[in-house]
Structure formats: structure tokens, C-alpha cells
Amino acid sequence: MAHKNDQQDLGLARQYEAYPYPERNPKDETKRLLIGSPSHLNEIDYWVFGGYRSYTQPLRILIAGCGTGDAAIMVAQQMARHQRSGEVICLDRAEAVLKIVKGRAATRKLSNIRYVQGSILELPDLNLGLFDYIDCCGVLHHLPDLAAALQILREQLNPGGGMGLMVYAPYGRTGVYMVQEALSKLTSLSDPPVKRLDVAKRIMKHLPSTAWLRFNGNFGDHLTGGDAGLYDLLLNPRDRSYKIAELWDLLDKNELAVNCLVEPARYDPAYLITDPKIREKFRQFDIRTQASLAESLAGNMSTHVVYVRRAEDNIQFADPCASDSIPFMRETPGEILANQILPSNLLPYSFGMLTIMLPLPAQARGFLGLVDNRRSVGEIIEIVKKRGIEEHRILPLWKQTFEILRSINQLFVRSAV
Ligand SMILES: C[S@@+](CC[C@H](N)C(=O)[O-])C[C@H]1O[C@@H](n2cnc3c(N)ncnc32)[C@H](O)[C@@H]1O
Fold it and tell me: What Pfam families does the database record attribute to this sequence (predicted)?
């Protein structure tokens, strides 16, 4: 339900009925599965449950403002593939987007998704029960009151559960708000969406080469996202962005604690500025300030993805050095990642257009080849020992490898429960 007297919210509701976002064709599900963050099942297992939740425990997931269903389809397919029980509830107030998610799920023959047309703000009255995990990606920054919505979502969490959130970040969207400002003068919110889109298309066709939007390669909605992408980027009636410190403050105020910023290394300024004196200075700041420094210095963050929990809950991450812990990759197989390590033992890793260099021990290649979501740390160490590495060196080298690859959201570990 849209807010009756809130013209921006009414415009938002109209937008997604006219241009379901992102633009998706259910037929494409026969060709590929779209993978992303938040809400990859392996990320949920690790960043929300610390690698401690049993795979046999049913998982109740809410996708709040599911749009055309990228996160819902990804996680429901991953659950089906690994015979993980539970259900994914797709909530959105636009009928048009739910129709597309249903089409995508039908193509994939997924039977673990339920659909609810309604507003996040109505959740307390929808009687959907509590959830172990809630995804709210690209929605909060469009709502009339982000804090109120966060509070409502928080109340739908089971104890020990968590959320994966994505909100816009300002610096990496440089140029977007300038064009939005111009379009807000050239079109009226009450115009039909098709008329507003026509104005945006004409502007984009003639946009001067000096416009900041033209220089910005941090996103591609206006270039490859079709009508829905262009509309969402430039004509969205309410679009705010949050610096990481602002987002963190909002989370604090809503009694939500951060499990992880995705990817952690992106928020470490020491990967950006390698000068030893400056690195020493960085280390004197707390994690939050370091994250702000990374955001200001990189300048390319157009979104923040964050996993959070209720502040009263504790999270413990499985011990990567316990011999019965089981390491698992997020998505890229270990051998493929190992092949990307340079002869200098540096792993180049890209966050959009920014590439950082991660120093790994030479033995990281060997470890990576052995991670298969079945072998335990103890078994991996036994194999590596037979390859001639002195026993006392193996665990520290593994720990170093694990911590670096975890910081780029690639390698996790679960407890053997
Ligand atoms: C930018 S799209 C994001 C879609 C999807 N989460 C994604 O990341 O691809 C925003 C979606 O939120 C939905 N939405 C906006 N306000 C809502 C509300 N109050 N309750 C439920 N859904 C809402 C819109 O209908 C739209 O489908």
C-alpha cells in the first residue's frame, strides 16, 4: 500500500508497476543463475550464522521488496540444489514484479517460494511469522522513513537471525543526483511514467561530455538496464544515499549490530594506501573510522552491502583452525582462485574498477586446491604435511590464507555440527 498523501511514495508505487526492476525475462533462467550479494546461501551460512547453523535446520527467509526476484531466485535455487529445507517468502507491493518472479521460479521449477503482495510497513499485520534471515536490497533508501522500516524488519527476526541489507552510497554515484535534479525540474511526478521516461531518454541522448554521470563507471543501469534501469537510476521519486558512517549510526539507533561489511577488504584503507607511515596512522583508528577513510579515498562505492543481527544477539564465527572445521568457498572454486594468484604470490582482486593486491603465502595455492566443502581443516593439514611442509608452519599459513580470502568474501568455514 502506498502512503496516500506522500506523492513520492505514490510515484514509487507507480514506477515499479510500470517498470518492474530489474528488467528480467523468465526465459533467461534456462541459461544462467544470477549470483550476487547479499543473500548468497554460503554468505548467509557464514556471515549470519557464523558457520554454526546445521544444514538440516529449515531456513525461513523473507525477501523484503523482492523486485523481479534476483535474490529470491538465487537463494531458493541454492536451497533446492543442496536439498536445504525451508521457504523463501517474496514480499513486494507491486503486482507486476511478483508476476515476473513467479515466471522465473516456474522456469526453474522451484517450489520453495511463496509470494505476498503487500508493504514492508504492513509486515506486523501480515502474520507471516518470524524469519531466520531477511534480505532487503535496494529498497530502504526509497522508503519514507528508513529507520521505521528497519525497526519493522528487525521485529520480524527470529532470535539469532540476521539481515542482508543494501543501500546506496553517495561518492560512487557521483553524477546521478545532478541529472536527477535536472529531471525533477523537467518532469512532474504526476506525469505518466512513460512520459517521464521519454524526457530522461532525450536528456541522456544529448548529455554533455562533461557531465559527471558520463565519467562514472561504477554502475551501468542507464547503459544496460533497459527502461527499468534508466528509470530507477534517474527518475526514482525518492532516492537517498548513505555514507558508511551514516548507515552505521542508523543501525546503532535501531539496535542492529554489524556482522560484516561486504567485502571487508573494501573497507580497509590499508589496501588503498600502501605508504607505511599512513598505514600506521590508519591503524590508530577504530574499524568504523577506517571504513569511512576507505570510502572517502576509494571514491567508487555506489552501494553498501551489510549483514546485521539484533544487537542483543551474539555472533561467533567457526574457528578456521579447529581441526574438525570444514572450509568452503563462496562461489569460485578454490582451484580457479588459486590460478589467479600471481607468481609474486599477490592475488589481484577487483571491486568494480578498483583492483587491490592481496599478499598470500606461497602455500595458499595448495590449500585452495583442497577446499571442497567436505574435507576438514585437519584432513587438509594432513595432506599438506605429506607434501613436505614442516608441521608447525602449516596452521599459521592456513590461518593467513583464510583471513585474507575471507576478507574478500571468498572463503568461509563451518563448524562440524
Ligand atoms: C529497486 S527495487 C529492488 C528490487 C530487489 N530487491 C533487487 O535488489 O533487485 C525496489 C523494490 O521495492 C519495492 N517496494 C518499494 N516500497 C515498498 C514497500 N513499502 N513495501 C514492499 N515493497 C516495496 C518496489 O515495488 C520494488 O520492487
Answer: Methyltransf_31
Q: How many residues does the chain have?
A: 417
Among 3, 8, 90, 92, which is best to mutate for testing ligand 1, by the most ligand atoms less than 8 A from CB?
A: 92
Residue 24 near residue 100 (C-beta atoms within 8 A): yes
- For residues 47 and 147, what is the distance between their CA atoms, to the nearest angstrom? 23
Q: What is the mean pLDDT of residues 26-50?
A: 98
Q: What is the CATH number of domain 7-171+240-310?
A: 3.40.50.150
| Ligand 1 binding pocket mutation candidate from 10, 88, 93, 143 (most atoms within 8 A of CB) | 93
Q: What is the pLDDT of residues 296-318, one digit of tens each?
A: 999 999 999 999 999 999 999 99
Contact in structure between 300 and 354 (CB atoms under 8 Å): yes
Domain ranges of the chain: 7-171+240-310, 326-414
H/E element, 161: strand 157-168
- CA–CA separation, 388 and 247 (whole Å): 48
117 CA distance to ligand 1 middle (Å): 11
